[in-house]
Amino acid sequence: MKETKAWYINGFVGILFIILLLGGAAFTLLTQQMIGLTALLVAIALLLATGITIVQPNQAKVITFFGRYLGSIRDSGLFLTVPLTIRQTVSLRVRNFNSSKLKVNDVEGNPIEIAAVIVFKVIDSAKAIFDVDNYEEFVEIQSETAIRHVATKYPYDTFEDDQITLRGNADVVSDVLTRELQERLTVAGVEVIEARLTHLAYSTEIASAMLQRQQAAAILAARKKIVEGAVSMAKMAIEQLDNEGILELDEERKVNMVNNLMVAIISERGAQPVINTGSLY
């Protein structure tokens, strides 16, 4: 199905034409006593009256005639369309759907709770009415399915800089969720405007354990950075002393110097140097 434009004219013109038909019927009955013609004019007027419809702003009327789709009316106002048709109203307004908190496993198998808000609108009224049974329910079910699928593609959190995570890359995850939802909802004539995560947390049964794991991983990552910086600083100090000729150190003294620098830099507490002032005797 694809949305097409239905036939319609200004409703006030249609009402005027109906009034003229009824007036002609009354005139015929009163002056010429032609009951048959009067009944015909009244029947035509009543038939045209069934085609009067009102379209509110940001709504569409889907017109069907004995099971055949004739088109849709998107303009707002009073109109006269094909008589004896069924007119179904479809909202074209922007709407949002808040998913419930879903419990899923991330890519590492950790149970997490996740929820999202989906902002969408109908752009094809024919698809929304005829290609799915209930497009609002279809949006809800497909949204939750897409959220579950996206949540299983990424870890909740990690300390690797080049890996996408649910917690650390919310914009990327939202873009992926929006694209996947659009693929699923195109069949219903729905455009996904935005999809954003509104809730993300570890499940209650593992929240405490995962917090300890996060803390341990954070400590290890920080220690790694500190060690890398300490090695770089010790190397730079040795090279600068050699290049400028300030001191001439043998290998044993270089080892001692590097050891002292590493201890001073890596230690969690401030270094307390011992100053050798020489012997008094």
Automatic annotation (TrEMBL):
Keyword DNA damage on entry: no
Molecular function in Gene Ontology: peptidase activity
Keywords, sorted A to Z: Hydrolase, Membrane, Protease, Transmembrane, Transmembrane helix
UniProt cross-references to SMART domains, sorted A to Z: PHB (SM00244)
Span of domain Band: 50-214
SUPFAM superfamilies recorded: Band 7/SPFH domain
Transmembrane segments annotated in the record for this chain: 7-29, 35-55
Entry's Gene Ontology BP terms: proteolysis
Database matches in CDD domains: SPFH_like_u2 (cd03402)
Entry keyword Transmembrane helix: yes
Pfam annotation, one family: Band_7
Protein name listed in UniProt: Regulator of protease activity HflC (Stomatin/prohibitin superfamily)
Species of provenance: [Anoxybacillus] calidus
